Amino acid sequence: MKKLSLKELQRISAEEFQNRIKIPVLFCADQIRSGHNIGSLFRIADAFAMEGIILGPYCVKPPHPEIEKSALGATRTVNWLQSDHIVTELNNYKSQGYQLIAIEQTDKSILLNQFDVDRKGKYILILGHEINGIGQDVLDICDLSLEIPQSGTKHSLNVSVAAGIVAWHFAKEWINNDK
After folding, report:
1. Where along the chain do its domains lie?
2. Could you tell me which CATH class the domain 21-177 is placed in?
3. I need a labelling partner for 122 at 20 to 30 A (CA). Which of 33, 102, 116, 173 fits?
4. Is residue 56 within 8 Å of residue 30, measured between CB atoms?
5. What is d(CA 94, CA 97) in angstroms, rounded to the nearest whole number?
6. 8 A C-beta contact, residue 21 and residue 53
7. Cα–Cα distance measured from residue 66 to residue 4, given in angstroms and rounded to the nearest whole number
């Protein structure tokens, strides 16, 4: 086994990435304060060619040194917008056929491994504040909530770790069917 070089990985350019078809999945950050977590959302969205990111109120936004440290340039490739009226913004997407999915532990959560992604669907994956989670006003408009099954004592994951797990669950539907 040999580690591949960047040349062997055949990475596409930022311009090629901008022009490629994206999977119809967006992240929405609801009051995520950490620039490192926001930067990770950008990097994950780039890795899986997601449609973009919606940053809600109080979120750190590019350009910001903490974001860039973990995004590694993905702020220049991933489409994003910032909205101080996140419920209105999400309702606008909902009217365009997007399913609003809270990544949160609720009394009605569906375990992630029991959720089948519909390749014809459009999704917004909503992640919340590092301590308080998703605000109730946002939860109230969500179509469903997904929970990552966990067996340990903490029953919580860092926002960026949870985002990566959930993004892969959605992206693999397109990756598996594009071969």
Report:
1. 21-177
2. alpha beta
3. 33
4. yes
5. 5
6. no
7. 28
Check residue 10 and give its pLDDT. 86
Task: Tell me how far apart the alpha carbons of residues 43 and 66 are, in angstroms, rounded to a whole number.
Answer: 13
Q: pLDDT tens-digit profile of 59-70?
A: 999 999 999 999
Strand order in the sheet with 23-30: 80-82, 50-55, 23-30, 122-128, 98-103, 144-147, 110-111
- What pTM, to 2 d.p., does this model score? 0.94
Mean pLDDT of 133-139: 97
Asked, as a colleague might, if the bond just before 63 is cis with ω within 30 of 0, I would say yes
Contacts (Cβ under 8 Å, ≥6 apart) of 64: 35, 38
Task: Identify each DSSP E strand in 31-121 by its residue range.
Answer: 50-55, 80-82, 98-103, 110-111
Query: Closest Cα partner for 124 from 95, 102, 146?
Result: 102
Tell me the helices (H) and strands (E) count for the chain, helix number first.
7, 7
